[in-house]
């Protein structure tokens, strides 16, 4: 039975901030062994989509891209890697990136710092609770959109804008330095990948960089914490959705939970060390006029170890109007399939809607 604990505290405190109950706090409360009913998430067990397969059970393996061949490979290796990236973006909207340019020690340090943030006292984190990330640059929260979510998700998060202007919470100590270095390295990695992606679309190497105004592009770190959940089959960490932006470079703490939808089936992505999980996001789908598909994904929870994932969103500048690349269009055989929209307006649309599948992307589809 779901417990009747009050799920969220919505009164303003005397400093004007609206505090909320984090799932970390809930999960650590004494004798906590059933979730409040507001967290119950039901999927239809008869729906074929609900069959979840492990990564090594499917005949069609998740594509793996060796980044070193894109950057340092000979002509043939580079050409093949660009072709493989294009195929992965088209068929999966997802790939695993190995041999990349971010050191294992920096990735581990970043994961440790994110844990240290979530382990701060609630009052230190709640300073960032009432913000909106596009305006204030740091937002700490729970679920997705507490005021709009029909049911709550088993997830706490912090989102931090790190480009074009770098922001960081003041605590924990060392967070700022580590996240600055991690942000710089992942931004460079994302831009290099987008060069390969431009070429894979038959466009000039800097096409995406220039048209998406990446000199002032948006980079956001979005860290998710999924504490142990006593009834994991009843709850969901993040529901099926696709991300805004061009690419999402995801890492995690060695605990699995990410599932991607491929050809109508959910695939469990095993925990990977020292790799980036690269997710094609909505703005790459739009600019490629649907040739590349943003991947629908979700985060399952467990009653074992705490899971943490850290997404790095590589996105157009907030005032870029993202529309299908005219170079890829043809009035008869390939007319524009999406209307143009400013990135900031797209983010607001996502923020103010329920997170579900491609519901936001569908609003700009013609
Ligand atoms: O935790 C995960 O693996 C997925 C996180 C995610 O989808 C997101 O941050 O957008
Ligand atoms: Fe996501």
TrEMBL record:
Pfam (any one): DIOX_N
PROSITE patterns xref list: FE2OG_OXY
GO MF term list: 2-oxoglutarate-dependent dioxygenase activity; flavonol synthase activity; L-ascorbic acid binding; metal ion binding
SUPFAM superfamilies: Clavaminate synthase-like
Domain Fe2OG dioxygenase span(s) in chain numbering: 216-316
Compartment(s) where it occurs, according to its Swiss-Prot or TrEMBL record: Cytoplasm; Nucleus
InterPro entries, per the entry: DIOX_N, IPNS-like_FE2OG_OXY, IPNS-like_sf, Oxoglu/Fe-dep_dioxygenase_dom, Plant_2OG-oxidoreductases
Keywords for this protein: Cytoplasm, Iron, Metal-binding, Nucleus, Oxidoreductase, Vitamin C
Main location: cytoplasm
EC numbers on record: 1.14.20.6
Lineage: superkingdom: Eukaryota
Gene Ontology cellular component list: cytoplasm; nucleus
Family: Belongs to the iron/ascorbate-dependent oxidoreductase family.
Function of the molecule: Involved in the regulation of shoot development and salicylic acid (SA) homeostasis.
Name of the protein: Flavonol synthase/flavanone 3-hydroxylase
The organism of origin for this protein: Medicago truncatula
Gene transcribed to yield this protein: 11407741
